[in-house]
Amino acid sequence: MIRLALALFLLVVPAAAHATDAGWALLRDGGHVVLLRHAMVTGTTDPANFEIGNCATQVNLSARGKQQASKIGALFAARAAPIERILSSRYCRCLDTARTAFEAEPELFAPLDLLKSDAADKAAQIAAVMKEIRAYTGSDNMVMVTHLENIVALTGVSPREGEAVVVEPQGDGLRVLGRVTF
Fold first, then answer.
1. What are the φ and ψ backbone dihedral angles of 178, each rounded to 5 degrees?
2. Greatest CA separation found in the chain?
3. Would you tell me the crossing angle of helices 119-135 and 148-155 to the nearest 10 degrees?
4. CA 145 to CA 1: how far, in whole Å?
5. CA torsion angle 37 38 44 47 (round to 10)
6. How does the average pLDDT of the chain come out, rounded?
7. Which of 31, 64, 159, 167 could form a disulfide with 163 if both were Cys (CB 3.0 to 4.6 A apart)?
8. Structure confidence at residue 6 (pLDDT)
């Protein structure tokens, strides 16, 4: 049993490294949209007294998450992946990921906030994000810092904290071109 687990692990690690290398190649070329899940956090759910403009009432980046965000920015710079535009959810964990990683003030983009529970509101959020992605024509990359459930709803992919998913519009949805783990 242990041998089987080890064999599976050894098969997965090179595949993840290859996927990351392919993702970096895309990002070096520029002109892509990156859905970036915020870096590691201190908890799992926001407290009952949550306020969007008050970080003290939210789940925030952990010390490890702050290090991860710094690593994200350092790797974007080291790999010469040009960034033209950064949009972020208004949640502090997303804003802090963007600010720490890219040393810039991101544009606040409310549709990147956690998805609403009402189906119509949720559909409107997804439509707004899709509209922004379809409209992007820059030569460098656009990074959208958001949450797990948003990326899953847009792509069907479940990224880890701090993972980047490179996408392009395809039909009514998005096609995943690559992924980068940090």
1. -175, 170
2. 50
3. 70
4. 39
5. -130
6. 90
7. 159
8. 37
User: Interior CA angle at 75 toward 74 and 79, to 5°?
Assistant: 125
Homologous superfamily of 2-180: Phosphoglycerate mutase-like (3.40.50.1240)
Do the beta carbons of residue 125 and residue 115 sit within 8 Å? yes
CA 118, chain centre distance (Å): 23
Distance separating alpha carbons of residues 105 and 95, to the nearest angstrom? 8
DSSP β-ladder status, 164-170 and 173-180: antiparallel
Judge whether residue 19 has pLDDT over 80. Answer: no
Over residues 58-96, the pLDDT tens digits come to 999 999 999 999 999 999 999 989 999 999 999 999 999
User: β-pairing, 173-180 with 141-146?
Assistant: unpaired
Please state the domain extents for the chain: 2-180
Instruction: Tell how many helices (H) and how many strands (E) occur in the chain.
Output: 5, 6
Q: What is the mean pLDDT of residues 94-102?
A: 98
Cβ–Cβ under 8 Å, residues 33 and 164: no
Q: How many residues does the chain have?
A: 182
pTM (predicted TM-score): 0.89
